[in-house]
Amino acid sequence: MKKIKYIIGLFLIAAFLGCEEENYQFGSLTAPSNLDINTVIIGSDTNPLGDGSGEVIITLSADNAITYQIGFNKIDGSGLIGPVSYKLLTSGTIDHKFTDPGTNDYRISMMAFGPGGTASNLTKDITVKSDYIPDPVVVTAITNDDSKTWVVNKDVAGHFGVDDWNKTEYTDTAWWWSAGIDEKLACCSCFYSTTFTFIKNANGTFSLTVVAPEGAFTKTGDLANIPGIPASGDEGCYSEYTGGTSGFNFIPSASPISEATSTKIAIKLNDNNTFIGYGAVQSEYEILEATSDKLYLRVQGTETGNSWYLILNPTL
User: Fold this and answer.
1) Is 287 helix (H, G, I), strand (E, B) or coil?
2) Nearest alpha-carbon partner for 117 in 69, 73, 70, 83
3) 301 vs 10, 112, 176, 198, CA distance in Å?
4) CATH 2.40.128 spans which residues of the chain?
5) For residue range 178-208, what is the model confidence (pLDDT) as tens digits?
6) Are 85 and 281 in contact (CB under 8 A)?
7) Which CATH superfamily is domain 33-130 in?
C-alpha cells in the first residue's frame, strides 16, 4: 500500500512541475490621442455660415480610439445653454442640424474611448446659420400670437401614453400603455394642475412659463432634469419644483415619425427650468397636432427606446 501511495505521489509532482503558469495581459492602456473634430457646414463654399439649413457634417477621429460619443451645446453671451447630452456614434461621422433660428454659436463636445475604458475629450466651437421658419398656423395655435396657457387634458383617454420611439407612423390605438380618463388623479394630481404658458414675445422670440402649485410630475435621479428634484424616488409629484421660465424655439422635428402623422415641427426648450407635461431629461417635444383646442406632443422617453405621448388642452 505504501508503494502505491509513493508512485501516485511522484505522478502528481511530475504533473505539477509540467504545468506552465498562464500569463494574462491587458495590453497597453493608452488613452486616445491626436483628437480631431472636422466640420463641414453645408453651403459654406458660398457662405461661411452655411446655406441656412443648419446642416453640418461632423467627423471625429483619434489615434487608439475604439468608439466615440458626441454632444452639443448652444452658446450665448452668458455662456453655454443647457447640459451636454452625449450620444454614441456607430461610426465617427454624423450629419447634424443646428436649428435654432438665426446665426448662433455652438460647442461640439467629443469623447474618444480607448482600451480598458481610457478616454480623452475635445471641444470645438462653430457658428451656423439657420433660416428655418415654422408653419405660422402651428405657432398661432400654440401661442395665440401672444400667450396661451395649456394643461394636460385629463378628460380624454390617451392623454398620456408610452410607445416605441422608433416607429415611423404615429397611432394612438396600439401603444404599449395608455392612460384612461383621470387615471393619474388619485396618485399625482399635479399632472393635471400644472399649467404651461407659451408666449410669443414682441421681438419674435418665444418663452414658456410653467406654474406647478402641487409640484412636478416626474421621476427622479437620472430620469429627471428639473431644478430641486431629489436624486431618488418613484414616479409622483415633487413639491421641490414650483415652476420656472425658459426660452424655446420651434425647430424641425428629428423623430422618425412620417409627415403623414406629424407636423414635423418640434418645441425645443433652451434649458431645464421648464418641462411640458411630464418632467424628463429630454428638451425636444415633437408636435403631432396643434389646433385651437388641442396640443398633441411626442417626446423621446428617458428610458432607452421609449416615447411619451401627451395631449393638452387650453385653460378657459
Assistant:
1) strand
2) 69
3) 67, 26, 13, 22
4) 136-314
5) 999 999 999 999 999 999 999 999 988 899 9
6) yes
7) Immunoglobulins (2.60.40.10)
Q: Which of 17, 81, 31, 62 is nearest to 283 (CA)?
A: 81
Whether the Cβ atoms of residue 81 and residue 63 lie closer than 8 Å to each other:
no
| Domain 136-314 indexed as CATH 2.40.128 | yes
pTM of model > 0.85? no
**Contact indicator for 128, 41 with CB cutoff of 8 Å:** yes
Q: What is the mean pLDDT of residues 279-283?
A: 74
Q: What is the DSSP letter of 189?
A: T
Q: Where in the chain is the domain with CATH 2.60.40.10?
A: 33-130
Alpha helix segments (H runs only) across the chain: 2-18, 136-143, 190-193
Helix H or strand E encompassing 104: strand 102-113
Nearest by Cα to 134 from 287, 296, 298: 287
Q: Which residues have CB under 8 Å from 2's CB, separation 6+?
A: none
CB 210 within 8 A of CB 243: yes
Where b means 16+ CB within 10 Å and e means fewer, 73-106 reads bbeeeeeebbeeeeeebeebebebebbbbeebeb
Burial class (CB in 10 A: 0-12, 13-18, 19+), 204: exposed
* C-alpha distance from residue 46 to each of 40, 50, 100, 106 (Å): 13, 8, 21, 21
Answer yes or no: is pLDDT of 18 > 60: no
pLDDT in tens, 42-83: 999 899 999 998 999 999 999 999 999 999 888 877 777 766
From CA 105, how far away is CA 125, in angstroms rounded? 7
3-state per-residue secondary structure call for 192-232: HHCEEEEEECCCCCEEEEEECCCCEEECCHHHCCCCCCCCC
